Amino acid sequence: MNKSLAILLASLLTAPAYAADNYTIDSRHTWPVFEVNHMGFSTQRGRFNKSSGKITLDTATKKGGVDITIETASLDMGFDKWDEHMKSEDFFNAEFYPAMHFISDKLVFDGDKVVAAEGSFTLLGVTRPLTLTVSNFRCAPHPMLKKPACGADITATLKRSEFGMTKYVPAVSDEVKIFVPVEAVKD
After folding, report:
1. Alpha-carbon gap, residue 186 to 69, rounded angstroms
2. CA neighbor of 186 nearest in space, from 64, 104, 102, 100
3. Which listed residue, 147, 154, 162, 167, has the most CB atoms within 10 A of its CB?
4. Average pLDDT over residues 48-74
5. 25/149 Cα distance (integer angstroms)
6. pLDDT digits 0-9 by tens, 15-41
7. Structural domains in the chain?
């Protein structure tokens, strides 16, 4: 083996390996919200009070992933009767489908900022592709926890009928907008 090849191999073997950082979703600061047009009169909103998940982020290689679970039984529409109706078989069927799930192993970067996550979303047992738009992405030391943290605002739009949620379409819009403020703390 010639000397220059040996030096090249040695430098490759001793080069620092970049490892992804793992973050756990802070459920106290991650509240998925959705909105849907109600009979053309108003925009109705609901939120989910329980979510969990992990984010993997390697800014050096511009790779990472997201794995978020949202508990459908944590749906909060503002009053009990409406919560019950939305958790029923007509909509989220929370008893039979206790969770929604988004998983992605492809983050899209613009420079050092994550701007999207391409993956799949499962609702009512149906899995379809979904791209989340990421804005306000920031990683920094958390001033209270004294640990690295990342946060962002996530948006997406989907058609609920594609997941089998067809009750009252089109009076209650098929198009659903999703908004998720998300914060995660490094493991």
Report:
1. 18
2. 64
3. 154
4. 96
5. 10
6. 344 578 999 999 999 999 999 999 999
7. 19-186 (2.40.128.110)
